[in-house]
Predict the structure.
Amino acid sequence: MNILNEYDIVVVGGGHAGCEAAAVSAKLGSKVLLVSMDLNRFAQMSCNPAVGGIAKGQIVREIDALGGNMGIITDLSTIQFRMLNLSKGPAMWSPRAQCDKIKFSANWKKTLEGIKNLDFWQGTVVKLVFDGDSVCGVETEIGVVFKCKSVILTNGTFLNGLMHFGASKVSGGRISEPPSFGITEQLTSAGFKAGRMKTGTPVRIDKRTIDFSKLQKQEGDEGENQFSFLPNTRSGLKQLPCYITYTNSKVHEIIKSGFGDSPLFDGTIKGLGPRYCPSIETKLVTFADKEQHQLFLEPEGEDSLEYYLNGFSSSLNWQVQNDAIHCIPGLEQVKILKPGYAIEYDYFDPTQLNSTLETKLIGNLYFAGQINGTTGYEEAGAQGLMAGINAHLKINGKDALILSRNEAYIGVLIDDLVTKGVDEPYRMFTSRAEYRLLLRQDNADERLTPIGYRLGLVSESRHEIFLKKLEFRNRVMDFCKSYSMKADLLNDLLIEKSTAVLNHGTKLDSLIMRPQLSIFDFIPVIPRFEKLYNSIDIDIRKEVMESSEILIKYSGYIDRESSVADKYRRLEGIVIDKKFSYQQLVSLSTEARQKLEKVQPKTIGQASRIPGVSPSDINVLLVLLGR
């Protein structure tokens, strides 16, 4: 065996999951090797040049709060920032940033190269090396072997990747990049269950040939906004608008003319596609009554010619794509830089994983990202972070980190994967979280930074910033609860805001609860409050005030949701791991026996979330446990 070097952890794949995994495990102190096909394309934004969005933005803030890098890298690369869903309650608010994709990858490269204990190797891993039922190394395509204590596979769309351009098929993990062979075949022969999934991407078009006068401009939010809870992580890049246009009946007619050669409809593509990010041809079939579909034109960089046509993902042949696009308002003369395509790739049923993301069949082998059937940079980054943390903890004999469903969207994500599995590419939504009012984007640091600090991922200086924010937030809350407002000093403001006037004095917090009023309305009319506001560090002032307002306005709802979460948390404390041979429990339903045997839940709480396991089945298990 031609062993080049030995490591604690080898991370295979330099995408969003791989970068987070390598960075966090090396930062914790493990000796880490990151193997990637191209050391100049770390965390490549293969599809949309954006980070965040509905629920995804919450995940990025959680990654940041724990000490990961995606939030900081995004801030340094942002060319537009928007907070989505502001018309709804704070549980739904979701940050999203357009990024300069070249600078995003370059910022990741700079970050990774600055981490002690992290080495790199450009190549393709084609084989895992086993020692009994544990992994102990990897082998590359040229026969180089790296010995290690743990391996994290983050292969993205590269495992047996196959791209579809109409009837034309090209092997690859993404355009102009080769696929990876060998890993799937080795793992399936070892007993793993694999499947195929499909995703897609739209054309990239030349900015110089777009008629922007026919498009609707969409500006970003004003002011300074960011993902990271650290101050001063802003990009300094030129902020750019996005644009909106629509398809029409002529476009639809041309697209439908290509259905005969579409690999989506002729049976060529076997993989499961994403329900919530469908191709344009799928939209025309699923929403046959729609006369038009909204499209977004998004810049791929501060000075880039490339624009991303969001909403026009397609596997149709290039000629059909070309003809259809030229019938879209504003794109009549546009030139295509890259055609859209669909890509099929291998994934592994995530119910074969423990909640640490370590596989059940092979010890010290972890999966993270699209290999687990997920879609999205954010979901991948979160899994990479958790796999990296847990791989390091295990090889150092420490307890695993498993986030619960009421602690983080990351906890919801991983629990969904390992408990329920996937039957299509998994995408996070706020609706997947039972306790989304507790899992807001604004309080991710309050939920997770103490955990990151305890692990050693959050620096002392960052922890001090966090404690200062809490101190100021508590001071603002105390002031609002104790300060009495006089009616005659406030009624002019209340009339202006179209809310009921006061007949007598009242506490400030009761006024902030009114939907017509904001905490910021009272700063200029209460000198003591203005003085307190100005005493807050300017870098965290906005966060402190918004956090205070949310806790005041929604205190009743938050308390009620916390109470419900506490009740369910007790089920998570009832351990059943390996206590039963489920096939022998005839008092359980047949489906429950099959599902419980497959998933092997660790707790009653996890068992209760397995599809097909009923409340009566849970009661049987509780009785058997003497509960």
In short: Residues 573-624 form a domain with the DNA polymerase; domain 1 fold (CATH 1.10.150.570). The CA atoms of residues 23 and 114 lie 10 Å apart.
